[in-house]
Design brief:
heterodimer; A: alpha+beta; Jelly Rolls; 2 domains; seven-stranded antiparallel β-sheet; 19% helix; elongated; B: alpha+beta; two-stranded antiparallel sheet; 12 strands
Chain lengths: 191, 204
Amino acid sequence: MSEHLSRAMTPEKAAVKKAALLVALAVGLFAASGCYTNLQAISTSSSVSSVAAWGVVPTSTSVASTPPCLSSPSSCGPFSSSGSSTYYFNIWNTATVAVTGLSYVLTSTTNTWLFACSVAWVNGACWGTLTLEFGPVTSGTYLVSGGVLPTNPGAEVYMEAVLSTPSAINVSISVSSGSTRQIRAAATTNA
Amino acid sequence: MRTKHKLIPRSKTARRLLATGFAASVLGLTGAGVYAGLTASTTGTSVVTSGTLLMTLGHDGTSTGLPETITAMAPSDVYNVYPTLNNTGTLASAAGVTLAASASPVNALTNGSIPGEGLSVSLNMCSVAWTVTTGTCSATQTTLLASTTLSSFSSAQSLSNVPALAATNGIAHLQFSLTLVGSETSTNGTLPSPTIQGLNTTIT
């Protein structure tokens, strides 16, 4: 009887072995599948960033309330003239960011004064706020960080250059974001 | 007596036959029983469900989180948003997390074509929700990614110190910072060339 039972269990053991093999294979495949897929979770989003531009345009002579050059970029800067002792021109902020200062590059062989008026000059007189940008000076680079400035985009100020003797003059104006920062202070936003 | 004597052998033979028959029937019955045992079977059922690993973005407090829209950035401007990374799956995440970014359009803000200029990204984590209005962390703050130019994201950047996020409720409180690095001078209203000014891009 014992011998018969022993023989009779052999197929059952084989069945158990087969089942175990199948389970192991399934687990192996599952594990292999898991390794292959390497479960990754990806979350995406997007940010839209735009950068401001900074710059001002000196426009040619104007004492009128509307300067003659308002195209952007201007086709009439830098301001340049000769043969007179007094010149008028405008500065227009064509930037998309506020400026806090300007660098003037003056080319003049005679002593020169530069005035800024918040409104258009009328017969040589400023009826608004008047500041002296620099002077008397000759050729050089002059940084102005206060007084009458075309601070906001689209703003204008009205300039008067006075020379001690009639001569040629060239005024170039620049705005920098570098070490002599002339655009608005950097801002930290938490949103 | 004689007759009696003759009957005995017959009886023995019969007994032997009977015994043989009985043994054979027992064996047959046993054999049949064993055969029935071989056909017996048992069945069981295994239910297998696979886990999920899902990450979603949320935000701390009043933060807009991601996506974000930034306009008119100037050099050194920093724009912080406070997204959260949530594990909504049923599997805990491993500690390894990468940050990938691609830009469209690709320009000087993102491709590093102007040395020292462009957008940079940094990522910090707070162990509790950020105070959005002030950008401060009231508990433990950890740097996940130091300031890195977007042009470095041609391949995904590995993040440091990201903990494993538990399943279903694991959350990481992040501070995503975007900074514009640049130094340019515009003269007489004309932009320098090349320039980072006046550009825009969408970063995904």
